[in-house]
Amino acid sequence: MLGKHGDAIASPFLRLSCINNSMSINKLRRPDDIRAGSEESKKWFRKKLKTINKSSVNRNKLLRDGLDPDYPYSHETMTPFPGKMYMFFYDPKTKATLEYYDRFPLVILVDTFSGGFEGLNLHYLDVETRQKFFYGGLLKTVSDKRFDESTRFKITYDRLKSARSLKQFRPCFKKYLTGNVRGSIVNVPSEEWEMAVHLPTSDFAKKDKGYVHNESRKMIGRF
């Protein structure tokens, strides 16, 4: 079912479980007395991230449990909407020629084109750089501070390219072909953007994330 803004209405897709059965998702549930998007919130997530066992993330379970059959709306959307955040499995058409790629992107969608879409895959940034980009740049572009189903990032490629505060976008900006998405495209509700940004769900092929993040830092440093 689609919401009034054309995107799929989603219940909190992380509320059941994305970590194995020995670890509760509540570890990354921000306390109610900490304001979303605040400096305090950023520090809280950074501290909690250290308690998460990186190898325990179950990506299949993350997507499957998000599509809760007992909830009246689905997380799944066949038409990704600009300004929203999504997770999905991906098998690149040109993977043979790529130096490395992420098989489980976390993407803020910027625009669509015939046969696909383009956006910011935040996994290409290490946690420190990702926080700086998310809190210091991206959150300043949001349409409102309600963080409900209508909230979205108001970004375009031209805005990203022209704003120095958004220069971290360069290694993150990727194009995706709809036909190479494997399974569901899952909408991350705005009230859980912070949680998704901090979860260790990247799945890089050919190179490890340390190498990828180092290459991203070098690219950013050239601007």
> What order do the SSEs take from the amino end to the carboxyl end, as H and E?
HHEEEEHHEEHEH
Helical run tally: 6
Report the principal-axis shape.
globular
Terminal CA distance:
42 Å
The proportion of strand residues reads 15-25%
Count of spatially separate domains: 1
The major β-sheet equals: 5 strands, antiparallel
Low-confidence stretches: 1-26, 66-75
Number of strands: 7
Mean of all residue-level pLDDT scores: 78
The chain-level structural class is: alpha+beta
Radius of gyration: 16 Å
Helix content: 10-25%
Strand order of the largest sheet: 5-4-3-1-6
Strands, helices and their partners?
Elements: H1 39-49, H2 59-66, E1 85-90, E2 101-102, E3 106-113, E4 116-121, H3 127-136, H4 157-162, E5 173-177, E6 181-188, H5 193-198, E7 204-205, H6 209-221
Antiparallel strand pairs: 1-3, 1-6, 2-7, 3-4, 4-5
What does this structure look like?
The protein is of the alpha+beta class and 223 residues long. It has one domain. 24% of the residues lie in helices and 17% in strands. It has a five-stranded antiparallel β-sheet. Strands 2-7 form a two-stranded antiparallel ribbon. Strand 3 and strand 4 form a beta hairpin. The longest helix has 13 residues. The N terminus is likely disordered.
